[in-house]
Design a protein that fits this description.
Blueprint: E1 3-4, E2 8-14, E3 24-30, E4 33-39, H1 57-61, E5 71-73, E6 82-84, H2 87-105, E7 110-114, H3 129-135, E8 139-141, H4 147-156, E9 173-177, H5 181-184, H6 189-197, E10 201-205, H7 211-215, E11 218-220, H8 227-240, H9 246-252, E12 253-254, H10 256-263, H11 268-275, H12 279-291, E13 295-299, H13 309-323, E14 332-334, H14 346-349, E15 360-362, H15 366-370, E16 382-386, H16 390-393, H17 397-404, E17 410-415, E18 427-430, E19 439-441, E20 448-452, H18 465-475, H19 487-493, H20 507-513, E21 515-517, E22 537-538, H21 542-546, H22 553-556, H23 584-589, E23 592-597, H24 611-617, E24 621-624, H25 626-631, E25 639-644, E26 647-655, E27 663-667, E28 701-707
Parallel strand pairs: 7-16, 8-15, 9-10, 9-13, 10-11, 12-22, 13-14, 16-17, 17-18, 23-27, 24-26
Antiparallel strand pairs: 1-2, 2-3, 3-4, 5-6, 5-18, 19-20, 20-21, 23-28, 25-26, 25-28
The structure holds iron/sulfur cluster.
Length: about 700
């Protein structure tokens, strides 16, 4: 809390959304009602601004369409016909159905499903894990986003925060690689702007001439899914022209000889053929990147969403060590800054509750799981959804809807609004917004810990997710202490407050200030000190050699992930699984590569139902290059159908050369029921995994586009 008088109070909050910026927020409350929300001007990174998605957050909190009471379905599945019921009735029904299903089929017939609809340590990704692990439910593997990037980064650099984004002001050469900062990481932009005032050059590598690319000194359009080839080609030139930092490589890296051999075949000519980038541009980029220091790379999550995305990120992660960029303030690489937060994931996740051998089902394949296509025994009989909206966000949308329509499936959804998924629920539960609950927020875009204090009473009968699972645990007779901790007790338990990065930081400071910067080294790898098993940057990955990939528990819900096939310990180029170059048979029918872009005015599917945001985002659309449009007789503003063997969706064509010939771009986040023909982009995306971390290959789909007449 900041200030208070008789009528007005200001309260410190933190944005809960799936965004790297985790803004510190000040909410003004008058007579128990939140009347204003604004950015906290004191926060050194987010600096008092909120993005367009969240600045009208009160519209969300006080929306007349919010789910405010528990409800039971009274019409056919999907018809969105519900009646209000009491919390007691809802909890009784859930507990009774769960017990019956567990007796009849075993508890693995129950499948939870959650993602980053809330990013808080209390109410976010792992809040229900202890409950479902105690129940013995199937484990829901969560690898939608950053799982491939994180695996590749951990294999190469270990769990380090990398370059502190606050130090980007010192950079002289900034490469935004597959990252549309002005839409998805807006609070990094002032640091980039400052660096440019100091003479830095900004390079954007992106298949699309994005908002950010338009502001860059140099935009390098790349063929989708070929980033690994570019990174290997850059290393080829850097080594051949002796632009490496020999001292750094000798002292602080592993596997240089093997890497040199590997990149020797990636000549500029070959790389140009693969990536579509002119030879001279590849050479210029390599020379500038190696010689203008400090150079820094900001990696976007988009890169992992291709068949070879993981190895692409591995290759990019090798670059800063090769040229010694880690030596400098503002040099190196920023993947996600989450790693130094001393989070005790086990407090909410409780891996000790998991019975050995409990099956794991990846959420990206939830349509197949619900439809019985994975050969699951027992089949899924109950589906419990919170913090996510799989109908719009997971692949094979038609299969998810078919699965949710099954009469024998018992579905529970905890939500703010009646989403496309909630429409198919048997029971809908009301969840609090961030102004109504406690939380503690890490960030994956900066290194500040942020506290969220409730500003107002919960609306209607909404409850925080923490309370939801406390109530469910009590109904199921779970007596463990973890199910009885209050929110304020969880705040104290969920971090290792003795960790050196939290020195001088305690809960009282957070309550006064709202945030605190972790005590981290701003030049973490000036002298190596990589938290890998060798202590060095691993061009040659010991994790791959051991075939023992340990992913953080919050990503997947289980302790260990063994890849099905051996992983190359050296970075390599794996072509896209669907592209005209690698799959000409498929491309003969579906010649266009489809990219799924983050929308500017929605956050994933959050805000996709609010009228102000929908107006700004405009109708669902597809960006198609003029050459591709002309071939199909498509003109700007016409209704088009995008399709492949997996399904189809309809949108308005935007004919624009911000994309390349052969590449079409459609933003995600639109809701099916508010779309033009009841489907969205995930009707056509594939459930195939990328090479590392079970990442979703959402950017690796071939489609055809035709006019709807
Ligand atoms: S969505 Fe991101 S940029 Fe927008 S307010 Fe939340 S944390 Fe800040």
């Amino acid at each position: 809390m900041v200030t208070s008088d008789n009528r007005r109070t200001t309260v410190l909050n933190a944005c809960p959304h799936d965004c790297p910026d985790t803004c510190s927020i000040i909410t003004t409350v008058e007579n128990g009602k939140a009347v204003e929300i604004r950015g906290n001007p004191d926060h050194p990174h987010t600096q008092g601004t909120l993005c367009g998605k969240v600045k009208d957050y009160l519209d969300r909190v006080y929306s007349p369409n919010r789910v405010l009471y528990p409800m039971r379905r009274v019409g056919p599945k999907g018809s969105a016909q519900f009646e209000h019921i009491s919390w007691d009735s809802a909890l009784d029904e859930i507990a009774t159905r769960f017990q019956k299903i567990a007796e009849e089929y075993g508890p693995e017939a129950i499948l939870p499903c959650s993602y980053l609809g809330h990013q808080g340590l209390l109410n976010g990704l792992t809040v229900g894990d202890a409950f479902f692990n105690k129940l013995g439910a199937s484990i829901s593997e969560r690898t939608f986003c950053a799982s491939g990037t994180s695996t590749a980064f951990l294999m190469t650099c270990g769990p380090t925060h990398g370059t502190d984004p606050d130090t980007f002001t010192h950079s002289q050469y900034i490469v935004l690689w597959g990252c549309n900062v002005l839409t998805t990481n807006v609070h990094l932009w002032p640091f980039i702007r400052e660096a440019r005032k100091n003479g830095a050059k900004l390079v954007v590598i992106d298949p699309v001439y994005s908002r950010t690319a338009k502001q860059a000194d140099w935009h390098i359009p790349i063929r989708p899914g070929t980033d690994a080839a570019l990174a290997l080609g850059l290393m080829h030139i850097i080594i051949k022209e002796n632009l490496i930092d020999t001292d750094y490589v000798e002292k602080y890296t592993v596997g240089y000889a093997e890497l040199k051999e590997r990149v020797s075949k990636y000549s500029p000519k070959l790389v140009s053929e693969i990536t579509g980038i002119p030879v001279q541009d590849i050479v210029t980029l390599a020379r500038e990147y190696a010689t203008i220091q400090p150079s820094v790379i900001r990696l976007g999550v988009a890169l992992e969403k291709q068949a070879g995305g993981g190895q692409g990120i591995r290759a990019i992660c090798c670059l800063p060590a090769l040229v010694g960029a880690w030596r400098y303030l503002g040099g190196g690489l920023l993947q996600i800054s989450l790693w130094p937060f001393p989070i005790r994931w086990e407090v909410l996740h409780r891996p000790d509750f998991i019975k050995p051998g409990t099956r794991i089902i990846n959420q990206w394949q939830v349509g197949q799981a619900l439809n019985g296509e994975l050969g699951l025994d027992p089949p899924i009989k109950a589906f419990f959804v919170y913090n996510c909206n799989p109908v719009t966000q997971a692949a094979e949308q038609d299969k998810i809807i078919a699965g949710l329509s099954r009469q024998d499936l018992f579905t529970v959804v905890s939500e703010h609004f009646m989403t496309d998924t909630a429409d198919y629920a048997d029971i809908v539960l009301p969840a609090t917004t961030q102004l109504e609950n406690w939380d503690l927020m890490f960030s994956w875009g900066h290194t500040y810990l942020t506290l969220n204090i409730p500003a107002i009473e919960p609306q209607g009968e909404a409850i925080p997710n923490t309370e939801l699972f406390r109530r469910l645990a009590a109904r199921m007779g779970f007596e463990d202490k973890c199910f009885k901790l209050s929110d304020e007790e969880i705040v104290l338990e969920v971090l290792d407050w003795t960790a050196p990065v939290l020195q001088g930081i305690d809960i009282d400071l957070l309550k006064r200030q709202g945030y605190a910067k972790l005590k981290i080294n701003p030049i973490p790898h000036a002298e190596g000190n990589f938290p890998t098993s060798s202590g060095k940057c691993e061009f040659l990955s010991s994790m791959a050699i051991d075939s023992n990939f340990v992913l953080p528990a919050f990503r997947q819900g289980c302790e260990e992930y063994q890849p099905g096939s051996p992983v190359d310990p050296l970075p390599t180029y794996i072509p896209p699984s669907e592209s005209p170059q690698t799959n000409p048979t498929k491309a003969a029918r579906y010649p266009l590569s489809l990219l799924s872009a983050k929308p500017h005015h929605f956050l994933n599917s959050c805000f996709g139902n609010l009228s102000k945001h929908r107006k700004l985002q405009r109708e669902p659309m597809l960006i198609i290059h003029p050459e591709d449009a002309a071939k199909r007789g498509i003109i700007e503003g016409e209704l088009v159908r995008i399709y492949n063997d997996r399904g189809s969706f309809q949108v308005i064509a935007q004919v624009n050369d911000i994309t390349q010939p052969g590449v079409v771009v459609a933003p995600l986040g639109y809701w099916c029921k508010l779309s033009l023909a009841g489907n969205t982009i995930n009707a056509v995306t594939s459930t195939t995994f990328a090479d590392l971390g079970h990442a979703a290959t959402v950017g690796d789909s071939l489609v055809e586009v035709s006019l709807v007449r």
